[in-house]
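Feature request disguised as a bug report, sorry. It would help if multi-protein outputs had a clear separator. Right now it looks like this:
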Amino acid sequence: MDEIRISYREVLIYLAIANAILGVLFGIFPLLAGLKLNNRKYGVIGFIGSILGGAIAGIFLSFPVAAVSSWLIIRKSSVNKTQDVGANDYSIDDPTMTYPAQ
């Protein structure tokens, strides 16, 4: 049986591919959270950033990128919900609506 030889360049390419796959796995969460919470921009940025970060530095960069982008998505979603809570939704066009006494 012949020996298998592999160069350093090939090793680096294979590791970058494996780490990019890991980045895809980490990046799925911010992508799905961004789509679910109507914040596609941060979701796609987190997904692509996790893939590129995984290819460059593995889990050391792909996980923090996914975590930060997920946090930004969730934070922005909670800010939007708290702003909607105190809104006045009274309509002048609805004659059956009773308005609070002032």
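(second protein starts here, but nothing in the output says so)
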Amino acid sequence: MAKIATTLRELIEAKVSQMGWRILALEIMPDHVHVFIQVDAKTSPSDIVRLLKGFTSRHLGKQFPWLRKRGHIWAKGYWLSAIGIVSSETVKRAHRSPKENLEPLAL
């Protein structure tokens, strides 16, 4: 699983860079991913998720074909939130602290 997590991190970083976005925090868990990114105001949240899920799914499926045998690589849903009232430092601090009870971004 460590190889998958490493590959997933590299794929997310590559796509974010390609799109001109910026990763502020990224945490890969066994069953979900937390991504805190800065994007332009024109990109919709659903497009962000669609692009990241689609790109990583295609590449992970090619590199780890057995993942496809289990069904879809990603769940259909996701959770996200835009920040504006709170600072990015507050979000980063909460991201690092599981005690904050943040809902996961299940890609």
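Even a blank line would do. Unrelated, but nice: The chain has one domain: 2-100.
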